[in-house]
């Protein structure tokens, strides 16, 4: 595969305050984004990619901290499913995150980090910032909006709340509302962070490293939900880590323990704990039907977009039933929708991994 | 229902050292137990109940700390499925726990608590202590051994390793080995405890309350795995806690958050964090096939017991497939086994809750 060529990596400062669902508004919001490919003269070939909870704008460029390839480098580039020879591909760091867009680690008007003074935001607030970015780039209507997991929630929200802004929406491994179990897992993560004395009520920025242990535990718990039980068994089973016998101790005897600990610790190098609190809260608050009078079909009443929904058979975080409910609502609203459950062993994380059927679905949907 | 009459609540001190799987042995092991009903003259009516991870000997008597009814008061008593008019019912706190049996909070030879000097124990070690108790009570062979979850693991281990000790084994919502996902969830809990500075490497006994925040997070994460997704949705859905609107804050807006926080905090009043580390480790180490040359059927070669296996259709911690593998192994070993999956909405915790079909299975199996 050819590597995508980054054509723009910039930070836009919104010229006007961003009004939020909580009733507050934020001044001077920054939106860090990347773009690949060229915008056509008629400005009709833009594809907006929306990232997941811990993702960022580095969709197909190396991550500046980890040095790893962009999180969807396998999907975005010349001749790849999201073809940068054809499409002008944009990906922006979400509001509330920590990779250049305004979030709790950003300076408030008094020059100190917002920390917990940052307003509680919603998925719709994130989308408002994305729409402001489109305006600044002179894009009235997207060819398509594409997102997996929390990116799929944003794609749904954009199609519902800014229907004139996109002619197609591709939603992968997502849900139209967070379930009690989803909220419960996020709450465990938040409590793990807040239980860490290094969190200091959120005011840790001037005090070294912050709540790394709590954030690591939060990531470990979440990571389990991203993988399937069968996938974990195939990958690790009960294999021991660099030893032939159990040690009768509390070291990471099992490979799965060592892997999880590594996932937790590595995460703290690249992510802000307060951003984790705010973004998980936004996801928990997400209930697209509730925003539209309690009926999901109503959310799509104003849309003239084509929809495509994809779920994975081993995803137990946002299982196929969640996508099916969205498909039913779109059908009830009389909107064009294709919906497919793909078979893949990786659980929720399948949308980030090597699933050739997903490549074909995305390429095919964007070509229409 | 009539209340069970406690006939004995005692602590036995083992007269000889208990040899452990790790190679060490423990001197002066104490086993706190309760008994209900009367042992028959022929000593053939004893039923040993084995408790789960955070259970204890108070199977049908009020818990001394919480004041709540015994954890299986609905199952154990006169005319109840485990009928104390008919059976002599015994339940002992497991080795490594904190309700009177020897564990990490107990005094070592130097008078100070073992803390992390306590040896890493196994499910089989717990069973060794139970068998010593049977010896002290003069019970050569049990009428039946009964256990759910980790209690089921002990029941399997007892039937496999001490086959002469029981004529029947009833195993509920259990597994013959901990899966990678099971280990992963336990590791999250252990890391949450160890990340709490109040844990102090395990030496917190002389320093106030110990790692309450870490233990609370561990309990919250585990608690999610005990419930079904549908059960959580039925019980809580996205209902708000004592408010009509979201607060756009980090309070427990949702009932499920409030419930989980309560579960976490309440747990720290009654459980020792180091015990949680040791008992989860014992469960992770459990692999009955591995103990018997890698073939589960071999584990049961010496047994002449009747077996009954029960799983619940909404249990995703130890799902039906786990019980089915045990049933296959018992069939391969030519042992009498009945196996049923019961339908119940509560997930793994179904074995503790009101599931009338379980009552009938238990009563019927014990009557044979």
Q: What is the topology?
A:
Two copies of one chain form a homodimer.
Chain A: E1 6-13, E2 18-19, E3 25-26, E4 30-36, E5 46-50, E6 76-77, E7 82-83, E8 88-92, H1 123-136, E9 144-148, H2 150-161, E10 168-172, H3 180-195, H4 212-226, H5 229-235, H6 255-268, H7 273-285, H8 288-291, H9 296-299, E11 306-312, H10 320-332, E12 337-342, H11 356-367
Parallel strand pairs in A: 5-8, 5-9, 6-7, 9-10, 10-11, 11-12
Antiparallel strand pairs in A: 1-4, 2-3, 4-8
Helix pairs in contact in A: 1-2, 3-4, 3-7, 4-6
Shape summary of chain A: globular
Helix content of chain A: 25-40%
Distance, first to last CA of chain A = 23 Å
Question: At the third CATH level, what is the topology name of the largest domain in chain A?
Answer: Rossmann fold
Largest sheet of chain A: 8 strands, mixed
* pLDDT < 50 runs, ≥5 residues of chain A: none
Radius of gyration of chain A: 20 Å
Mean pLDDT of chain A: 97
> Most extensive interface, residues per chain?
A-B, 56 and 56 residues
Specify the oligomeric state: homodimer
- The share of residues in extended strands of chain A comes to 15-25%
CATH C-level class of the largest domain in chain A: Alpha Beta
- Kindly report the name of the CATH homologous superfamily of the largest domain in chain A: Alpha/Beta hydrolase fold, catalytic domain
> Which structural class should the secondary elements of chain A be placed in?
alpha/beta
DSSP summary, beta strand count of chain A: 12
CATH architecture assignment of the largest domain in chain A:
3-Layer(aba) Sandwich
Treating each run of at least 4 consecutive H or I residues as one helix, how many helices of chain A? 11
Task: Give the SSE order of chain A as H and E letters.
Answer: EEEEEEEEHEHEHHHHHHHEHEH
């Amino acid at each position: 595969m050819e590597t995508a060529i980054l054509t723009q990596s910039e930070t836009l400062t919104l010229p006007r305050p961003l009004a939020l669902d909580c009733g507050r508004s934020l001044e001077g919001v920054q939106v860090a984004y990347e773009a690949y490919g060229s915008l056509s003269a008629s400005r009709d070939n833009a594809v907006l990619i929306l990232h997941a909870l811990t993702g960022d704008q580095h969709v197909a460029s190396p991550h500046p901290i980890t040095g790893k390839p962009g999180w969807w480098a396998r999907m975005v580039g010349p001749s790849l499913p999201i073809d940068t020879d054809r499409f002008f591909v944009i990906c922006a760091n979400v509001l509330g995150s920590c990779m250049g867009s305004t979030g709790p680690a950003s300076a408030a008007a008094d020059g100190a980090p917002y920390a917990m003074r940052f307003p509680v935001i919603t998925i719709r607030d994130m989308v408002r910032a994305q729409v402001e970015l489109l305006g600044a780039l002179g894009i009235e209507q997207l060819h398509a909006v594409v997102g997996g997991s929390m990116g799929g929630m944003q794609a749904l929200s954009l199609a519902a709340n800014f229907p004139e802004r996109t002619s197609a929406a591709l939603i992968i491994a997502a849900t139209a509302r967070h379930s009690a179990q989803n909220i419960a897992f996020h709450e465990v993560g938040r409590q793990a962070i807040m239980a860490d004395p290094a969190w200091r009520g959120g005011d840790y920025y001037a005090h070294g490293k912050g709540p790394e242990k709590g954030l690591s535990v939060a990531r470990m718990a979440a990571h389990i939900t991203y993988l399937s039980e069968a996938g974990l068994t195939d990958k690790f089973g009960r294999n021991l880590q660099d030893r032939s016998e159990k040690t009768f101790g509390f070291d990471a005897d099992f490979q799965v323990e060592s892997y999880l600990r590594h996932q937790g610790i590595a995460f703290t190098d690249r992510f802000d704990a307060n951003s984790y609190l705010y973004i998980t809260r936004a996801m928990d608050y997400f209930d697209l039907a509730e925003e539209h009078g309690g009926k999901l079909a109503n959310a799509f009443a104003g849309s003239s977009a084509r929809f495509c929904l994809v779920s994975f058979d081993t995803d137990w975080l946002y299982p196929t039933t969640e996508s099916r409910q969205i498909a039913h609502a779109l059908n009830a609203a009389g909107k064009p929708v294709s919906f497919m459950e793909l078979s893949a062993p990786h659980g929720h994380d399948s949308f980030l991994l090597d699933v050739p059927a997903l490549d074909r679905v995305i390429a095919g949907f964007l070509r229409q």
